[in-house]
């Protein structure tokens, strides 16, 4: 996994009747802090002599610059009261996530004069952004040195990454869904019309032909085989391992050919007749590299994986799982399991490549995942409505089971179980070893998806986002 860099358009604002020198001062102080944090900025210091947004005539050149530079988000510090209508015009035209914030005001001087009134301006700008129907993120009115500032900026960068990824999703669909999996059907046209989510469907023979080419070329396949021998306990034959490696190489090449960032594969049972293996280990290898691969042609599952990894700034791989059975001893425990596609770094032990629970073909990874804090998530929809089921869990001890697995505990399993059964969700979910619930919750306002918190803790999440 490789982290990503998000580029912020930096457009600090002021209003003419308040102190311009103090606004310029806070423009500089805020920028210094952001650069100290390693944030990549595109500023407006070449647009006017103050480097501040307050003149309506500057909106067009700022917009042109931000578009040319490809900014992923807009940060509008209110260095004094600010000019709310130019902020709204720029934000509306730019159409990226917007972060609204202002530094706390000083006490009035001995003559009762206030220099900035930044907080008051935030109230005005929030209202005008609503009039313009521009969604925005609000970071509490705090000092630059307060921990809420850095936390809020970093969370906003992650929100920008989720939105950036969501607006450019293209998924490689390898063969249709298995006949028996009616639950994983999706509405391809609706996904395109509502969200610009694009699919690149290919038939199974195109995949198997690419596998054949990879084996004939040999070098890359041999490198993958050697990696498997070092990273895992290989309990299958060399010929079977060669097929696993060739499948991994082939899927990666096809994803690149069609410009896809994730893959949804049929996985059974036509593939077994062609290659004699399960694709799980090949999926695991790609998942480890940051190319999510999900099973049973679950397009919504692939979307979910992209979202949760984006929320973690592409620093941590996700894992695709089934909700399966209740924990035998814990009333709020549940087993997350799948045949073996989870990334190697999720494992709490050295994984093996062997045989899955329900099939007689080799090529599945086996390992219990690491415990610790988790986010569990599912993007899904039907009948024209889409939502994002999300919440937290923690890994707990439980009985051994085949495949890649993790027993988890949630706050209220019965409430979560009802949500899954009543829908629009299914038995598939995506987990990640990081708490990204607040980031995903906030990102939903920008991508047109309804957040659905299974912990029933919306006020807690909102309080965190406010900086409490």
What's this, in brief?
This protein is 40% helix and 21% strand. The radius of gyration is 25 Å and the shape is elongated.
CATH architecture of the largest domain: 3-Layer(aba) Sandwich
Mean pLDDT across every amino acid position: 95
Distance between the termini: 31 Å
Overall radius of gyration: 25 Å
Which spans have pLDDT < 50 for at least 5 consecutive residues? none
Tell me the CATH topology of the largest domain.
Answer: L-fucose Isomerase, Chain A, domain 2
Describe the fold and architecture.
- With 468 residues, the protein is of the alpha/beta class.
- The chain folds into two domains: 7-166, Rossmann fold (3-Layer(aba) Sandwich), CATH 3.40.50.10940; 170-466, L-fucose Isomerase, Chain A, domain 2.
- 40% of the residues lie in helices and 21% in strands.
- It has 15 helices and 19 strands.
- Strands 11-12-17-16-15-18 form a six-stranded antiparallel barrel. A five-stranded parallel sheet has the order 2-1-3-4-5, with helices on both faces.
- Strand 1, helix 1 and strand 2 (40-42) form a beta-alpha-beta unit.
- Helix 2 (59-69) packs parallel to helix 3, helix 5 (147-166) runs antiparallel to helix 12 (299-311) and helix 8 (219-231) crosses helix 9.
- The longest helix has 20 residues, at 147-166.
């Amino acid at each position: 996994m490789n982290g990503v860099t998000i580029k912020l358009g930096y457009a600090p604002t002021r209003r003419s009747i308040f102190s311009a020198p103090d606004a310029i001062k806070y423009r500089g102080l805020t920028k210094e802090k952001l650069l100290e944090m390693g944030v990549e900025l595109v500023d407006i210091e070449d647009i006017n002599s103050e480097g501040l947004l307050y003149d309506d005539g500057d909106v067009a050149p700022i917009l042109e610059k931000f578009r040319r530079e490809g900014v992923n988000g807009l940060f509008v510090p209110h260095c004094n009261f600010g000019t709310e209508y130019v902020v709204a015009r720029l934000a509306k035209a730019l159409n990226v996530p917007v972060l609204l914030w202002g530094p706390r005001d000083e006490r009035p001087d001995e003559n009762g004069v206030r220099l900035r009134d930044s907080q008051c301006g935030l109230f005005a700008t929030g209202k005008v952004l609503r009039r313009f129907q521009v969604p925005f993120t609000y970071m509490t009115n705090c000092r630059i040195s307060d921990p809420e500032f850095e936390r809020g900026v970093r969370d906003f960068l992650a929100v920008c990454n989720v939105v950036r990824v969501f607006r450019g999703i293209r998924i490689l669909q390898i063969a249709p869904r298995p006949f028996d999996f009616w639950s994983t059907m999706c509405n391809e046209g609706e996904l395109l019309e509502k969200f610009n989510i694009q699919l690149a469907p290919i038939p199974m023979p195109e995949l198997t032909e690419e596998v054949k080419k990879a084996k004939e070329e040999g070098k890359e396949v041999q490198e993958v085989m050697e990696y498997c021998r070092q990273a895992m306990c290989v309990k299958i034959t060399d010929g079977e391992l060669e097929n696993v490696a060739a499948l991994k190489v082939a899927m990666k090449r096809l994803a690149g050919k069609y410009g896809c960032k994730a893959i949804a594969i049929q996985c059974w049972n036509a593939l077994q007749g062609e290659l004699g293996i399960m694709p799980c280990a090949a999926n695991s290898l790609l998942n480890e590299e940051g190319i999510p691969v999900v099973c049973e042609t679950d397009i919504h599952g692939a979307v979910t994986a992209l979202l949760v990894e984006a929320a973690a700034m592409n620093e941590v791989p996700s894992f695709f799982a089934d909700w399966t059975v209740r924990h035998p001893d814990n009333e709020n425990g549940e087993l997350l399991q799948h045949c073996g596609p989870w990334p190697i770094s999720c494992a709490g032990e050295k994984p093996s490549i062997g045989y899955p629970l329900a099939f007689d073909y080799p090529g599945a990874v086996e390992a219990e995942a690491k415990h610790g804090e988790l986010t569990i998530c599912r993007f899904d929809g039907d009948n024209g409505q889409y939502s994002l089921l999300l919440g937290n869990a923690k890994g707990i001890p439980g009985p051994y089971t085949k495949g890649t697995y993790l027993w988890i505990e949630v706050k209220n399993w019965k409430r979560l179980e009802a949500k899954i059964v009543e829908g629009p969700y299914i038995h598939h979910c995506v987990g990640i070893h990081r708490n990204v619930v607040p980031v995903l919750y906030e990102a939903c306002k920008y991508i047109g998806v309804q957040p659905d918190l299974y912990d029933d803790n919306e006020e807690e999440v909102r309080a965190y986002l406010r900086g409490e």
